[in-house]
Amino acid sequence: FYLTGTRLAPKEKLDIPVLFMPDTMKMYEAVVVIHVMRENGENWPYEDSAEFSKDLKSSVTVAENGGIQGIVWVYPVHGIPEAPQQKLVPAVVRCRARQRVERRVEVLLTGVVPGANAMPATRNSAMVNTNKPANVQEEVQVTDGFSTTVEFLYELQYQSNEIKSQLGALVGMHLMQRERDKESGIVTLVFNIVFAPNKPMRNEATLVVQCTTGGIWKFPMLFIATEPEVDDVINIEAVGLNKESIVGFKLTSQTR
């Protein structure tokens, strides 16, 4: 759209509205161009107008008399659509502390192909094997029968740096399977999640998948670590009334 005839006083601010209403899950690009001129039609004097630098020449309009007739600002805008998050049930990964569990998480990326349904969905089932940190982005390629390759990046995001420090080394994620339905265009990604907690906890995370052509899908996850199993039972037999009974046992530290 064009916004003309807007007057600005010295030091005044101008808010420029930008409306984004995507109809497909792809990135849209545009530029916001602002051209300012003096209200009285006069030029800004500039002594070295003949020796404008290359960058300055692209942002000013020079008049015949050597003054500056107008100044132009160009701001690129990238519109990245995000799939609407309905009330999705989190994929729950539950494990006892000091144990290790593997779970399979399947996510559906709808709306990848123009015209496909734009509502996301997620399912949870079982099995895995990985040692990769959960916060490292990786690239995924999905190819349909027409040799059209769609690339994705994925990562686990946490609500805070504190939660990230707690879960980062305890959760591993690895992509095991990817496929694309030719008719609907829905892309299915199957991840294997490894969870090896060292103490009881309950933390949330978000599996974020981004298409390199634009479009973001987010799926909630919940990691629950329950109380660990009892290591052993210590029995102390009394040797008599008002007499101390002592039993010794060894503790082994898991770290230095």
Distance between the termini: 64 Å
In the CATH hierarchy, the architecture of the largest domain is Sandwich
Sketch the topology as an H/E string, one letter per element: EHEEEEEEEHEEEE
> What is the mean predicted local confidence, pLDDT?
79
Mind telling me the C-alpha Rg?
30 Å
How many β-strand stretches?
12
Instruction: Order the strands across the largest sheet as they lie in space.
Output: 4-12-11-8-7
- List low-confidence stretches: 115-140, 142-148
Q: How many structural domains?
A: 2
User: Quick one: biggest sheet?
Assistant: 5 strands, mixed
Overall outline: elongated
Instruction: Supply the CATH class of the largest domain.
Output: Mainly Beta
The residue fraction in helices comes out at under 10%
Strand content: 35-45%
Instruction: Output the number of helix runs.
Output: 2
CATH topology of the largest domain: Immunoglobulin-like
Q: Please state the structural category.
A: mainly beta
GO biological process, one term: sperm axoneme assembly
Protein name: CFA47 protein
InterPro entries: Ig_CFAP47
Organism: Cochlearius cochlearius (Boat-billed heron)
